Amino acid sequence: MKCKVCRAHAVVDIRRHNAAFCQDHFVDHVNSQVAKAIKEFKMVTAEDRLLVAVSGGKDSLAVWDILMNLGYDTTGFYLDLGIGGYSGRSKEAAVAFADSRGVKLIVRSLREEHGFSVPELSTLTGRVPCSGCGLNKRYEFNRAALEEGFDVLVTGHNLDDEVATLFGNVLGWNTQMLGRQRPVLEERVVSAGAARAFVRKIKPLIRIAERETAAYALIRGIDYIVEECPMVEGNTQHRYKEALTLLEEASPGTKHRMYFGFLKNVSDRFAEDRGATELIPCAGCGAPTVASGAHATGELMCSFCKTKALAQARRAEREDATGRGVKRR
Ligand code: SF4
Ligand SMILES: [Zn+2]
Ligand SMILES: [Zn+2]
Q: pLDDT tens-digit profile of 111-137?
């Protein structure tokens, strides 16, 4: 196996591109694929300040590294989810990477900010851990980007992530999510002329497969956390990924064709389902929430505040019950 560019010994082959690369040319290839995605989908301008959400895993650290290589103004953001030793080790990986590159990493903790971790939230509300986790991440990433004055929020979603999400959205015909599944989600405001409510969100790794980000991280000496989150068990997206990887092995390029075919030929058909809904500020925290849903239910709270209030109420009930138990003894 020889490098497509220099004919030296190749270390990575990419079957869907029918190409193999030596270490240096693989790094060039990954950087150029990210630059191509950024240009094609007009993700950022040269002046934008980018906040990169990092988990300590290979994808988010790789995208941060690549954006720095491409000359963008980046800062990392790590949210401690409070998932036992896993969160501690993933934070160490994120901090070590930032230190090794001499770049700024903002660290916040869910428990310090709101009083609960992802496992505690799940126990208190009965919500599936990954669902509560996703809600928290979306909320906290956007809040941090707005509070710290960033123009764009970057996530490390790769081709495998996006095609698995697409697969799930098609299986359930979730037309609203199909309409919103774009590599760029433009910023939104609560009302015309108001300050930003949602910052622009971008996914620059859409042209890179998961095994390629792992190879990239290895070659670039990025010491990422390899272990998986202990709560991933039962995550349906995980199962979709496994199924799609079987199809990809049988027919290289399947994932790329499905995802980019969707963006090119299908996505706009769901434009109306994207939710051109009016946003209003949440009565609890001021964050944007969808006006139509809020009016329909008579509630003006965002999903995050509703979930947080439920967790706090359940915790108070438990403490109350424990207190009564102690008194009876
Ligand atoms: S596996 Fe689930 S709980 Fe763990 S980090 Fe991912 S979304 Fe959060
Ligand atoms: Zn080469
Ligand atoms: Zn709120």
A: 999 999 999 999 999 998 999 999 999
Burial label for 251, CB within 10 Å (0-12, 13-18, 19+), is exposed
From the CA of 56, the nearest ligand is 1
CB 40 within 8 A of CB 32: no
Helix (H), strand (E) counts: the chain: 13, 12
Per-residue pLDDT, 199: 94
Closest ligand, as measured to the CA of 121: 1
Residue nearest to atom 1 of ligand 1 (CA): 232
Structural domains in the chain, CATH included, are: 33-276 (3.40.50.620), 278-329 (no CATH)
* Residues above pLDDT 70, as percent of the chain: 93
Among candidates 120, 149, 160, which has minimal Cα distance to 310? 120
Burial class for 41, CB neighbours closer than 10 Å (0-12, 13-18, 19+): middle
For 45-75, the DSSP string reads -TT-EEEEE--SSHHHHHHHHHHHHTT-EEE
How far, CA to CA in Å, does 37 sit from each of 123, 134, 144, 200? 40, 25, 25, 16
Helix (H) or strand (E) holding 324: helix 303-328
What SS3 state is found at 214?
helix
Closest atom, ligand 1, to C-alpha of 238: 1
